[in-house]
Amino acid sequence: MLRYLLSRLLTFLPTFFGVTIISFSFIRLLPGDPIIVMAGERGVSAERYEELVQQFGFDQPLWRQYIDYLGGVIQGDLGQSFVTKKPVWDEFFALFPATLELSVCAMIFAVALGLPAGVIAAVNRGKLFDRTLMSTALVGYSMPIFWWALLLIIVFSGMLGLTPVSGRISLLYYFDNTTGFMLIDSLRSGQSGAFTSAVHHLVLPTIVLGTIPLAVIARQTRSAMLEVLSEDYIRTARAKGLAPFRVNGVHALRNALIPVVTVIGLSVGTLLAGAILTETIFSWPGIGKWMVDSIFRRDYPVVQGGLLLIAVMVMIVNLTVDLLYGFINPKIRKR
Amino acid sequence: MPLLDIRNLSVDFATASGQFRAVDGVDVSVDTGEILAIVGESGSGKSVSMLAMMGLLPWTATVTADVMSFNGQDLRGLSPRQRRDIVGKDMAMIFQEPMSSLNPCFTAGFQIKEALRLHLGLDKKERHDRAVELFEMVGIPAPEDRLKAFPHQLSGGMNQRVMIAMAIACNPKLLIADEPTTALDVTIQAQILDLLTGLQKDTGMALILITHDMGVVAETAERVQVQYAGQKVEEQPVADLFETPHHPYTAALLAALPERATSRHLPTIPGVVPGQFDRPKGCLFSPRCKYADDRCREQPPAPAGTELGVARCHYPLSAKAEAEA
Amino acid sequence: MAETTMTAAATAAARPGRLKEFWFYFRENRGAVIGLWFFAAFILVAIFAPLIAPHDPTQQFRDALLKPPFWEEGGSLTYPLGTDAVGRDMLSRLVHGSRYSFYVGIIVVTFAASGGIVIGLIAGFAPKWIDTIIMRVMDIVLAFPSLLLALVLVAILGPSLTNAMIAIAITYQPHYVRLTRASVLSERSKDYVTAARVVGASKSRLMFTTVLPNCLSPIIVQAALSFSTAILDAAALGFLGMGAQPPTPEWGTMLAEAREFILRAWWVVTWPGLAILITVLAINLMGDGLRDALDPKLKRS
């Protein structure tokens, strides 16, 4: 297990350096003078220009610039926003809980529905439920989620008036963001109705963001279950007189989970891509919207920092999934 | 009344190309304390008839029988729930491939204790003690450690011992062993067979041994029934069967035993068991039978009397000399 | 020379059989056949868009703003699916939009696949250290969510449909590289490759003529699937304002323009999205069928 962990970590490092190179190159690849490009119509004074050249180190040779950048990154210095002048790192951490809250809810939604759906479909292979579910899953998998979001808004907000259209909580409530997670903060604030409001705001974005992972998980669970159900040990489990629920839900599912966990891990990247669209549509103040806004504001230091942080996040998740994979697959664990 | 009594059992599978009859009018009966061997080539429906009785076939299978009773209980009308109370408790089964028959994600201990909790309702401590006791019974050294082991950490023979321990966990009245030694090394085979017969003697349960190996039959069983292409073709006590086989197929199987070879070349049975599409019109064995004539090829034979081993043959063999010819 | 004729004759004899077998498996999957029909219709619409569309897609009918579809009150058959906020005919825009989606699919798949296959072949045949470098680089690209990377690339290149296609093609490339390399590695150890090497086939011949044709099945399936995701991603970029620019009747861009009217005129939002969904769904259905038909081994998974 330890050796497995070490070998995973060894591939982590070169990828990390590669990712820093890409985020480093981003600003330097912009056509023309990056500072002029960033300033755009806002314009830039001569002093400010000089200051920025110093800040980015454009007067230094390229290798020197990279070393300085890398040194900064390792010390947690990702530069400052061009627009707000705040450190990128601080902005990221102020917004990250919102994205995390939404992503976790979407993932719970996808797993909670996708796993049982896939299991039931596999057990009832070829029957009506299976066929309906698999067709639905394919539709979900093919869904342009930005349109799906608009449709849900039309129905639930427009026609039924059930859910709000944007934001994380109604403006009526105000309290300090101690954890940054609206569900927790609203409960802690003790204001009546705050938690309900937070939940209402969360429903549609969760469904939108969870739709594609849900479809993927349901499909993958079904096919993994089908493979496992024809194994000899399933017959053994039934020969013990175990109830179908235990045979399918414990003996089969435990084995089917091994490939499914991989797929769940892989959907984290998809989830972050989806967060960009979902957060933009629902004005959800998270990392995805922050990135899009920064791109439009040409706040490139923010884009550069966000790019790096998001890639590192994806890498950490993938690493965790690898370790988890070793944990749920006894054949790897005890090797 | 025998412990297990099955009469005229048939199993049909719905396949893409129509119905396929895997078991055709088979009778099986076995008494407490008896060892019955069911012998036949692959595809002769040996395992399928037992799986059908235990309700372990997929939904594509249709099972019909005139009588199917176990321990005085009619198995045919049982709800799945009632059947599950019997299966794994009073009747248990072990399978051919010990490596793939145990769940790779759970420890041996988990898998054996699961049955103990389900059928006997033992508490945690009792389950553990019983599991250790069972592992000792089946000759697994260091049972405490082995309980914590995953199947892939144990050898094939050790896994088969775990399977046997699991099967006898609830003191079954009937144990069905489906080719229990086929996938094992020759040296382990004898150990496992000794273990099975020893357990059978100690506990007094009935044992049905499914095999294609006449050698295994000679060493262990008391009564033998021979199956061919889904039909029972002969049934006799072991000694009599080896002495005077009545069905030409049995005779041919015996002649193929290396110990009985009379010439330099081992005699073989030409051809294979008929499948879904090449089922003969008359006697199912006729295409491969050296005695077959037109009557055999046209009319399916009826079983003969008990004195002729209920052989399904128009011309049952009777003399010892004839059988060896 | 003799060798070439022989190979030609052999392929000629094998072709119909293989195609027929493929069609036999493909046809078994009803969904795939439906998907194929939809896809064929989509291509026809894209090709004959100017003939099918009743109006010019950018012409603004000032007297017919936000007209509903013909079956709703106030709609008319002149604008069968209604008009948008500046009076452009929805149907005409949708029909023309199919062209852009089709371009996106074709170009992204062509560039991503051809680049990815070549790099993958090199990685599969090159010495270990080159292979390691290539695969590390691909890992790095894969660490970025594809839509984010595409967004950033477009930010560098400037927003337009062409740049969006380039960006998407770059983000898809690693998938082809991994796929090709994996199948090359599994094929390379087989006897027929050794035989070709012993006979003295050159490295490039070994790569492109001997091994590549046997690795194509999973690549074709991947191509079908990335055709649909390319359409989705291009539409997403258009929706975010980083793809095709107005007044181009690209489906994602149309949705972005329609956003502010969602609660007033459902049709301006519904049709473009439905068009994307149906196209993507048809291609995915077809892709599933392709996978089952090309690779019976995968069929059960």
UniProtKB/TrEMBL annotation, chain A:
Instruction: Please give the CDD domains that the UniProt record associates with this protein.
Output: TM_PBP2
Predominant location category: membrane
Q: Where is the ABC transmembrane type-1 domain?
A: 96-325
Record's bilayer topology term: Multi-pass membrane protein
Q: Which UniProt keywords apply?
A: Cell membrane, Membrane, Transmembrane, Transmembrane helix, Transport
| InterPro entries recorded | BPD_transp_1_N (IPR045621), MetI-like (IPR000515), MetI-like_sf (IPR035906)
Is Secreted a UniProt keyword of this protein? Answer: no
Entry keyword tRNA-binding: no
- Pfam families listed in its UniProt record: BPD_transp_1 (PF00528), BPD_transp_1_N (PF19300)
- Where are the membrane-spanning stretches? 12-30, 92-124, 145-175, 195-217, 256-282, 302-328
Q: Where is this protein localized, as stated in its record? A: Cell membrane
* Family statement: Belongs to the binding-protein-dependent transport system permease family.
What is the recorded name of this protein?
ABC transporter permease subunit
Q: Which organism is it from?
A: Defluviimonas salinarum
List the top taxonomic levels of the source.
Bacteria, Pseudomonadati, Pseudomonadota, Alphaproteobacteria, Rhodobacterales
UniProtKB/TrEMBL annotation, chain B:
Give the matching InterPro entries: AAA+_ATPase (IPR003593), ABC_Ni/Peptide_Import (IPR050388), ABC_transporter-like_ATP-bd (IPR003439), Oligopep_ABC_C (IPR013563), P-loop_NTPase (IPR027417)
Q: Where in the cell is it found?
A: Cell inner membrane
The superkingdom of the source organism is Bacteria
Key word Cell membrane present = yes
Q: Does the keyword DNA-binding apply?
A: no
The chain positions of domain ABC transporter read 6-254
Which molecular-function annotations from GO does this UniProt entry contain? ATP binding
The record's annotation in PROSITE patterns points to: ABC_TRANSPORTER_2
| First-listed, main subcellular location of the protein, grouped into a coarse class | membrane
Query: What are the UniProt keywords, alphabetically?
Result: ATP-binding, Cell membrane, Membrane, Nucleotide-binding, Transport
Give the bilayer topology: Peripheral membrane protein
Q: Which NCBIfam families match?
A: oligo_HPY
- Family assignment? Belongs to the ABC transporter superfamily.
- Write the protein's name: ABC transporter ATP-binding protein
Protein species of origin: Albidovulum salinarum
Q: What is the lineage of its organism?
A: Bacteria, Pseudomonadati, Pseudomonadota, Alphaproteobacteria, Rhodobacterales
Automatic annotation (TrEMBL), chain C:
PROSITE patterns xref list: ABC_TM1
Q: Does the keyword Transmembrane helix apply?
A: yes
Annotated membrane-spanning segments are: 32-53, 100-125, 219-240, 261-286
Keywords, ordered alphabetically: Cell membrane, Membrane, Peptide transport, Protein transport, Transmembrane, Transmembrane helix, Transport
Q: Can you give the residue ranges of the ABC transmembrane type-1 domain?
A: 102-287
Q: Which InterPro entries match?
A: BP-dependent_transpt_permease (IPR050366), MetI-like (IPR000515), MetI-like_sf (IPR035906), OppC_N (IPR025966)
Cellular location(s) = Cell membrane
- How is this protein situated with respect to the membrane? Multi-pass membrane protein
Matches recorded under Pfam families: BPD_transp_1, OppC_N
Identify the main location.
Answer: membrane
Q: Which family is this sequence assigned to? A: Belongs to the binding-protein-dependent transport system permease family.
Question: What is the designated name of this protein?
Answer: ABC transporter permease subunit
Which organism is this protein's natural source?
Albidovulum salinarum
